[in-house]
TrEMBL record:
The lineage of its organism: Eukaryota, Sar, Stramenopiles, Oomycota, Saprolegniomycetes. This is FAD dependent oxidoreductase domain-containing protein. InterPro entries: FAD-dep_OxRdtase, FAD/NAD-bd_sf, G3P_Oxidase/Oxidoreductase. Pfam families: DAO (PF01266). Residues 14-177, 179-273 form the FAD dependent oxidoreductase domain.
Length: 342
């Protein structure tokens, strides 16, 4: 994402969030609720594409995240935030817990570490003997030696979470736009305040953000463009060139393992803190946050279009990109249709 952006239509926003996956929509929502003027840019026709449309639908405890890492910090913070936000947005979830099963002696020896790693956030984590495990899960394959029960892990609706984040941000003044496809507005030829004729800019890909040089090819391209616009410039000498890197106010949110859904609210809060250190939101302390509740699964199923696999939420048509959600809607729609025939 990048701070202070002007769109081609002249609209200036504080922050542009690029990418409408679960982390992008969470960051979008967080910054809007903090009072920033934010737009979300998505290159696809619908949000929740790429990795986000294949998330597991589990909010985990992240006990295996490296100790002291930013990932672990964001997961732990998100675990504090997730339950309340899920309730506020009307997101379906179920705290079913999970089992870390030991199938070998080596697995069994590692179980105390799993318990210790989880105790910092969930004191209900406990070790189960083989007998206790099979009493809990009688259909489990034979041969398990024991397990750790982690009650804090939650099953969630995988597609509705980013959709709810998006609409909460939109409800509070954020905007959703397609990603601009033009690389540059073209070459300008103008006389600056000091009487110098300026030609540019270009939009060249660089291998390093520290590389501020202009190659002879770039200079030749600009000279040719200037001469085509004003032929007399062909005979004028070049007195100097310059380049700039416009990415000094970027926050790159990437390299996330498989914990994006779990940690998304924690990541969003962390990004909000980073941007808050750069500049204060225009509406800080002066805006009222408007609540939002996502439509129920039953409501979505009633208007689910099985041909286009789409639903409409607040006038915005969304393709249901996650297979688990799509299958769930198809199942519920069939149940509703069967019931109506009775």
């Amino acid at each position: 994402m990048v701070a202070h952006v002007e769109h081609g239509d002249g609209v200036v926003v504080d922050v542009a969030v690029i990418g409408g996956g679960v982390v992008g929509t969470a960051v979008f929502r967080e910054l809007v609720l903090r009072g920033y003027n934010v737009t979300l840019l998505e290159k696809n026709a619908n949000v929740v594409h790429g990795a986000s449309c294949g998330n597991s639908g589990i909010a985990c405890t992240g006990y295996d995240a490296p100790e002291g890492s930013l990932e672990r910090r964001c997961i732990r913070r998100a675990m504090e935030l997730n339950p309340a936000v899920y309730r506020e947005l009307g997101l379906p979830s179920a705290a079913v817990g999970s089992l870390v099963i030991a199938w070998t002696a080596q697995d069994l020896a590692a179980l105390p570490h799993t318990v210790a790693a989880n105790h910092a956030i969930d004191t209900q984590v406990k070790t189960l003997s083989a007998a206790e495990l099979y009493a809990l899960e009688p259909h489990l394959a034979a041969g398990a030696l024991g397990a750790v029960f982690v009650p804090g892990e939650i099953v969630i609706e995988p597609w509705l979470i980013p959709i709810a984040y998006l609409h909460h941000g939109l409800r509070n003044g954020g905007t959703l736009r397609p990603v601009p496809t033009d690389r540059t507005k073209g070459v300008f030829v103008f006389r600056n305040l000091h009487g110098l004729v300026v030609v540019g800019p270009t939009a060249e890909d660089q291998h390093s953000r520290e590389d501020m040089t202009n190659t002879p090819d770039v200079v030749a391209t600009l000279r040719a463009a200037a001469s085509q616009i004003v032929p007399a410039l062909a005979a004028c000498p070049v007195v100097g060139t310059y380049a700039a890197d416009g990415a000094h106010q970027w926050v790159v949110v990437g390299g996330i393992r498989s914990t994006g859904v779990t940690a998304s609210l924690g990541i969003a809060e962390y990004v909000g803190q980073l941007i808050g250190a750069w500049f204060r939101p225009r509406l800080a302390g002066r805006h009222v946050i408007v609540p939002y509740v996502v439509p129920t699964f039953q409501e979505l199923a009633m208007q689910f279009d099985g041909t286009s696999n789409s639903v409409t939420i607040e006038g915005l048509v969304h393709q249901v990109t996650h297979p688990l959600t799509r299958w769930g809607l198809q199942k519920l729609l069939k149940q509703q249709q069967d019931t109506s025939r009775l």
